[in-house]
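To illustrate the input format used throughout this study, we show a single complete record. The first block contains the structure-token representation of the backbone; no residue identities are included at this stage. The design step must infer an amino acid for every position from geometry alone.
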């Protein structure tokens, strides 16, 4: 089974993708992590990706699919792939169809974690990281045990510099423009499963499991 998981920033997409990949033993194709890893390598592809990231720009469609190709293998398709962070627009959706066709693969389900703009903003402003171990928290959905102190290191948590209200609103606007059309695209193909993302993590996970069967 090949699954796409979609949702705005702050929807808990990464958390639900991890839980689902483990439960269903799927290969978790985490696009952001892959691109960051390649950006740190001294290759032509890696340097191209790093250049766009330094400028704060989205990596172009063709470069993104090139970065993911090495993970679209027969072995991973046998397990089933969970696409997390890709596709992010209609062009990438069409590119994915072409790549899947090479392996006689199809997308079986598309999970859409639905939360409001206001809730996305609230959650994103609540993100915190440990400056020592790098562990991530969210004061709304995944808070530390004691105030804003890391559970493991006992040091004060910090917010990312780019997670101020203005920057977050810009990212959410970009999501609305690029990714929201995908929702209708997959709905018309009868692949879309709409999930209420404004609930506890375990409740959402169980809902997803029940709906994908």
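Output of the design step:
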């Amino acid at each position: 089974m090949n699954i796409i998981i979609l949702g705005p920033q702050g929807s808990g997409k990464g958390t639900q993708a991890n839980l689902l990949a483990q439960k269903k033993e799927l290969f978790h194709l985490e696009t952001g992590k892959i691109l960051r890893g390649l950006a740190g390598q001294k290759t032509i592809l890696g340097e191209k990706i790093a250049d766009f990231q330094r400028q704060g720009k989205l990596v172009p469609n063709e470069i993104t699919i090139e970065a993911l190709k090495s993970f679209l293998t027969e072995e991973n398709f046998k397990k089933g792939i969970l696409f997390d962070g890709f596709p992010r627009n209609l062009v990438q959706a069409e590119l994915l169809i072409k790549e899947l066709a090479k392996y006689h693969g199809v997308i079986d389900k598309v999970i859409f974690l639905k939360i409001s703009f206001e809730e996305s903003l609230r959650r994103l402003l609540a993100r915190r990281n440990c400056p020592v171990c790098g562990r991530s928290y969210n004061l709304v959905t995944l808070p530390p045990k004691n105030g804003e102190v890391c559970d493991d290191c006992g040091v004060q948590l910090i917010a990312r510099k780019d997670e101020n209200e203005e920057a977050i609103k810009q990212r959410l606007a970009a999501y609305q423009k690029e990714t929201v059309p995908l929702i209708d695209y997959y709905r018309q193909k009868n692949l879309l499963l709409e999930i209420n993302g404004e609930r506890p993590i375990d409740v959402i996970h169980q809902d997803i499991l029940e709906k994908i069967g």
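Structural context for interpreting the output: The first helix runs from residue 13 to 24. The CA atoms of residues 39 and 54 lie 10 Å apart.
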